[in-house]
Design a protein that fits this description.
By secondary structure, the chain is an alpha+beta fold. Helices cover about 20% and strands about 10% of the residues. The chain has one domain: Cytochrome C3 (Alpha-Beta Complex). It has a 4-stranded antiparallel beta sheet. The N terminus and C terminus are likely disordered.
Length: about 140
């Protein structure tokens, strides 16, 4: 998979800034035709998921929404096993991010993890707080 073209230092260029919506305190999602951008806040704050990056790789909705993830926003975050440990064992994102199909979920952390500072910046708040695991 290609690395995202943005970095934490360039978050202002993300289209999600225009259409970000906080849903149930768990997920930020842009209202795009391609599924938009999702910011997971559990199990850690915050992990960004860009549907468009996965579509660009030739994946369609059924690639992930046929068993790995339900179509409803925030469902995975409600599951007790939605953890980095389960990803490392091949669940959720780890089904593809295994080091063979795509980069392994235990490598290139900052491609997905934007931390508290990145989350706050996306939501127009001061970029304070640690990027550590917590939430």
């Amino acid at each position: 998979m290609k690395r995202s073209k943005w970095s934490v230092g360039k978050l202002s260029v993300l289209p999600v800034l225009v259409a970000a919506l906080l849903v149930g305190g768990q997920v930020v999602r842009a209202a795009d035709d391609d599924g938009g951008t999702i910011i997971f806040t559990k199990p850690v704050k915050a992990v960004i998921f860009e549907h468009k990056n996965h579509i660009a790789q030739g994946l369609d909705c059924d690639s992930c929404h046929s068993g790995l993830f339900e179509m409803a926003t925030g469902t995975a975050e409600g599951n007790e096993d939605f953890t980095m440990a389960s990803l490392y064992k091949g669940k959720y994102c780890g089904a593809c991010h295994d080091g063979n199909t795509a980069f392994a979920s235990n490598t290139r952390c900052t491609v997905c993890h934007i931390g508290v500072k990145g989350f706050n910046k996306l939501n127009g708040k001061p970029a304070t707080g640690s990027g550590g695991h917590g939430g």
